[in-house]
Write a structure and sequence with these properties.
The longest helix has 15 residues. The protein is built from 2 helices and 3 strands, in the order E-E-E-H-H. It is elongated, with a radius of gyration of 21 Å. It is an alpha+beta fold.
Length: 76
């Protein structure tokens, strides 16, 4: 892990397309501003982990359920 020290208003660059700037420091909290292309997905870690968990759950659907759904969708 790369650890950097930044002051208020300073930033870091990731590749040519992403910039992360320290926009506010208040007590133990730091507010970051992120400039990135619109197609870049940016989430807080807890949100990202919840999305990953939901994706895993959706993959674990039993094959019987998939067969039943496909029967319902087939025109007769």
């Amino acid at each position: 892990m790369l650890v950097l020290t930044r002051k208020l208003g300073e930033s870091i660059a990731i590749d040519d397309h992403i910039k992360i700037r320290v926009v506010q420091i208040k007590g133990k909290q730091v507010r970051l501003g992120i400039e990135a292309p619109k197609d870049t997905k940016i989430h807080r870690e807890e949100v990202y982990l919840a999305i990953q968990d939901q994706n895993q759950q959706s993959v674990q659907v039993s094959s019987d359920k998939v067969k039943n759904i496909s029967k319902l969708l087939k025109p007769e």
